Amino acid sequence: MIQISNLHKWFDQLEVLKGIDLLIPRGETAVIIGPSGSGKTTLLRCLNLLEIPTQGTIELGNKSIHFDKSTKLTSTEIVSFRKSTGMVFQGYNLFPHLTALENIIEGQIIVLKKTKAEAEKKARALLEKVGLGDRADMYPHQLSGGQQQRVGIARAMAMEPEVLLFDEPTSALDPELVGEVLKVIKDLAKENMTQVIVTHEMNFAREVADQVIFMDQGVVVEKGTPSEIFQNTKNQRTLQFLNKVAER
Amino acid sequence: MFSNQERIDRIIGILIDSFFPILKAGIQFTIPLTIITFVLGLILALLIALARLSSVKVLIVLAKFYVWIFRGTPLLVQIFILFYGLPSFGITLDPFPAAVIAFTLNKGAYSSEIIRAAILSIPKGQWEAAFSIGMTKSQAMRRIIIPQSIRVTLPPLGNSFISLVKDTSLAATITVTELFQKGQQIASVTYEPLWIYIEVAFIYLIFSTVLSYFQEKLELRYDKGIAK
Ligand SMILES: Nc1ncnc2c1ncn2[C@@H]1O[C@H](COP(=O)(O)OP(=O)(O)OP(=O)(O)O)[C@@H](O)[C@H]1O
Ligand SMILES: [Mg+2]
């Protein structure tokens, strides 16, 4: 479960998140949609503390952090919180000096202190799961974008996070490679992995989401089931956004 | 004609006689001096680079000050201060250790800038990916950033290594009988400076060519995992 209450983020004078409240129950997949600059990436980055929120509360599993002006997190607190989240990046961000397998092993050994054998066993199983069992020893530059992103998902999964965060996982991909990545995410949703996904793929959102969240200008304008948002919304801003996306 | 032939024979004789003594001085002093100071300089450089990239104000200032001093003054002057200057504080160093210290301090300053630039050249996304799997800053530095930086540092560090081979000739000024000093000694007794110094140049050329070859090998090895 992940609960966000009254979350604010300022960059200097610019308020990018203006009091976000969200509840994502365990095992559910939430999809965040919204126009460019609405704060979607910033929200995800706040959830794994790549950005430190200015104010508000984040609860994740049994951990809870409250932020305000006087909050000074130690690096131990930050790291312990981050271990509960996995992040999948738009640009994959695989480690280029390590093979696919080593990318997935690294965190298990360095952070989770597993033995090499344990870590490798898990890494191989995850590669199999994302359909790359035969690519274990390839370096990132030898893989297609879709394959790299699937390794990215496996790397995040290897840490056994409470929640997986995806920031536009397919927007850097050629159209014909999008499907293979979305399939992996759908499978994870079916297995009741808790996921928060920022995407511009509306059909995918409709299919995979338990909850759709529409953000604009730093606020959550509307949230609900896919049919509530995509078919039955009465909200003018949501309608406007969906129409604009449909035109493309 | 006859006297010309005699002169050529004499020069060839001198060159042959002096080749191995000069080469030996190179193997005995130039090469060890180069390798020792390069390795020590690299360790020092890494520490200085990490200090400059840290978030501790005092460390940053100290590192900057250090680099400022050693990059802003001539190496020859640094060597002289160490060898001829320190005795007035009661610190007397033998020529070879003095040379090692001077070159290390100097190389450390230059190489730290190379290392710092390489670390800064690694995209922010690599740090974030490391953080996202729960690494601390120092784990990310050690496991993700530095291994990738090494590849970036190899060409400039290789160049600085080869220029160090040649810079060690400055140790002659504090009586280390390295390659150049040996050449000087022989030139002054044979009165054939032109030919002896050409021979000296040739031996330096052999050293730097061999080292360039290893540098290339090393660069190739570290190119794995990187798209061309
Ligand atoms: N590090 C930063 N410093 C200053 N401003 C920032 C920073 N990061 C984001 N912003 C600003 O915050 C706002 C929201 O950015 P964010 O990247 O979260 O939007 P987004 O919804 O993800 O947009 P997109 O769909 O284009 O990815 C933008 O106005 C952006 O310029
Ligand atoms: Mg974004």
List the defining traits of the structure above.
heterodimer; A: 248 residues; alpha/beta; Rossmann fold; six-stranded mixed beta sheet; four-stranded antiparallel beta sheet; 10 strands; 38% helix; globular; B: 228 residues; mainly alpha; MetI-like fold; elongated; binds adenosine-5'-triphosphate; binds magnesium ion; cell membrane (chain B)
Biggest sheet: strand arrangement of chain A: 6-7-8-3-9-10
Q: How helical, in percent, are the residues of chain A?
A: 25-40%
What is the fold-level CATH name, i.e. the topology of chain A? Rossmann fold
Secondary-structure element string of chain B:
HHHHHHHH
CATH class of chain B: Mainly Alpha
Tell me which CATH architecture of chain B applies here: Orthogonal Bundle
Mean pLDDT of chain B: 92
Q: Short description, anyone?
A:
Chain A: It comes from Peribacillus asahii. The complex is a heterodimer of chains A (248) and B (228). Chain A is an alpha/beta fold.
